[in-house]
Amino acid sequence: MCVTVLEGYDLNSISIATLASHSSLQIFHGAKQEGFKTVAVVVEDRLWFYKQFSHLVDYFIVLGSWRELCRRDVVEKLRKLSAVLIPHGSYVEYVGLGCAENIEVPIFGLRKLFRVEADQWAKMELLQRAGIPTPMLFRIGEDVDRPVIVKLPGAKGGRGYFIARSSQEVLQGLRRRVEEGLIKSPEEAMIQEYLVGVPAYYHYFYSPVLDRVEILGADIRYETNVDGLKRLPPQVAVELDVEPSFIVVGNMPLVLRESLLPKVLDYGIRFVNATKRELPPGVIGPFCLESIISDDMEIRVFEFSGRIVAGTNIYVNGSPYSYLYWSEPMSTGRRIARELKMAIEKNMLEKIIT
Ligand code: AMP
């Protein structure tokens, strides 16, 4: 998809559209702060909820199901409103990869990255090629010689993940998940070395207009039941035979030791450079690296997102880091709108949409 997606667009009345879910309220709020009209693409049963925020939404496009996004009439409505679509963490999961990457509406972000993100192995390879330290990976059949976390595909918020200590435990766990219908075959899973330390998730923004990478915030996820296990005396956990699980229920703010920031920013820059090299023009706007920091301050990245992540919702009024760049409340949603505004003013729109 190239800039022909902008054909017929009125550059003086661009609107910002997204699926009403995930981080959409933040995106609409930020868009309004920067003076844009907003479009909420919403499924019928959620319309009542988003209507509570109608001061943030100028137009609602109501669908029976998310998969209708690519229907001709829906695309035409979006184009009529000169809408730029903001893909967030639920976008590909909801509309499907085919629609997500082929929709004939300008996207703020890198379409080519959706396909990489849908493939857990390709994702980890991109991180490795960026020169970012990652956990060891194992394939089914390979000898698992240390504790591992076994991850199922798709953005299901950690559902079905488990820890195993041997190849046999990996296979047993995966067979059970096949029986439960969570996956079709064990080969779909990704097996990663289980990293010991604390989790930390960094929110970045790459600005093609300013050609710089900004750290807009950081968060920790609150995951049940792994975070809850701390509340149980270890012997009770053993008695109850509780296995850790990793289902996200929310996010908490995190401010990092300042001495960690150079490394965190360096990883962000490496990621941007790798995407520029491997998937030109490279990542555009928000992305996130998910890491574990060990007690020797080593940061290893086990996952990334090429879009706005839900953890940014903590900072609707800006974060300690975004304030340092902008000296005004700057959420990721607002930063997207600001980039769009600057690109329009500088006649650089083709640099930030694909
Ligand atoms: P993910 O779906 O990759 O974001 O992982 C969900 C959760 O599992 C993370 O937020 C971490 O708590 C945990 N996790 C994922 N990968 C690892 C790893 N390699 N080592 C330790 N914990 C992990």
Automatic annotation (TrEMBL):
Ligand binding (5-amino-1-(5-phospho-beta-D-ribosyl)imidazole-4-carboxamide): 22, 90, 251
Species classification: Archaea, Thermoproteota, Thermoprotei, Desulfurococcales, Desulfurococcaceae
GO biological process, one term: 'de novo' IMP biosynthetic process
Record-stated family: Belongs to the phosphohexose mutase family.
Protein name: 5-formaminoimidazole-4-carboxamide-1-(beta)-D-ribofuranosyl 5'-monophosphate synthetase
Domain ATP-grasp: 124-345
Native source species: Ignisphaera aggregans
Pathway(s) annotated for this protein in UniProt: Purine metabolism; IMP biosynthesis via de novo pathway; 5-formamido-1-(5-phospho-D-ribosyl)imidazole-4-carboxamide from 5-amino-1-(5-phospho-D-ribosyl)imidazole-4-carboxamide (formate route): step 1/1
Chain's gene name: purP
Keyword Magnesium: yes
UniProtKB keywords: ATP-binding, Ligase, Magnesium, Manganese, Metal-binding, Nucleotide-binding, Purine biosynthesis
Function: Catalyzes the ATP- and formate-dependent formylation of 5-aminoimidazole-4-carboxamide-1-beta-d-ribofuranosyl 5'-monophosphate (AICAR) to 5-formaminoimidazole-4-carboxamide-1-beta-d-ribofuranosyl 5'-monophosphate (FAICAR) in the absence of folates.
Pfam families: DUF1246 (PF06849), DUF1297 (PF06973)
EC assignment: 6.3.4.23
Cofactor(s) of this protein: Mg(2+); Mn(2+)
Positions with a binding annotation for ATP: 223
